[in-house]
Amino acid sequence: MVAPFDATDFRRTLGCLPTGVTVITAATPSGRPVGMACNSFVSVSLKPPLVMFCAGDASSTLTDLRSSGTFCVNILGSAQGALCRQFSVKGIDRFAGVRWTESAAGPELCDALAWMSCAIDTEHVAGDHVIIIARVTGLRVNQDEPEPLVFHRGRFGSFCESAEPLAVTGALPRQGPGGGTRAPSATPSATPGAAG
Q1: Region entry Disordered: which residue ranges (predicted)?
Q2: Looking at the domain assignment, is residue 186 inside a domain?
């Protein structure tokens, strides 16, 4: 039997999974920049190129994103922890002191790791959140290649490369009979970001 748990237990357990960190930005019809920190951003499909993220159903930024119809995903670098915190605080000007440039989809935050222009495709209600699925319309990568910002157990960090890289296909080795591992097949059957 599974022991009962509360929201704090649930949040603490989910915190064991390291995630990348993004800031989702858009512009209101009047041109005002809006944005929010997000670590629920994942890929969905390669053909067509689709991504998704989750936003609280009471989020005012979600309302602005819907009215815009487009947004920019700013994938944060390891030195942008303070920036992420700023975009997590409610009731402030989140763009105060932030360097950014305009784009058709939404503000591009300077020094990010990469930027994706997206157009909202569909929405799905999920508990107290809304799942936004969007089509990627443009990409740009920071040529300086900063390290990524990683969020784990309420703290920021970065990425440490393993001494044993993944196989050429990028798939994890699978457990074989007798406890050993076997190499993944040459043609992975699952789409990156999709649950198998």
Answers
A1: 170-196
A2: no
Question: What is the model's pTM?
Answer: 0.77
Preceding peptide of 48 cis, ω within 30°: yes
Residue type for position 39: N
Separation between Cα atoms, residue 75 and residue 84, nearest integer Å:
10
Residue 188 inside a domain? The answer is no
Domain range for 36 is: 18-157
**Could you tell me what percent of the chain has a pLDDT over 90?**
57
Alpha-carbon distance 124 to 133, whole Å? Answer: 8
Task: Report the CATH number at residue 33.
Answer: 2.30.110.10
CB atoms within 10 A of CB 121: 14
Q: Is 4 a domain residue?
A: no
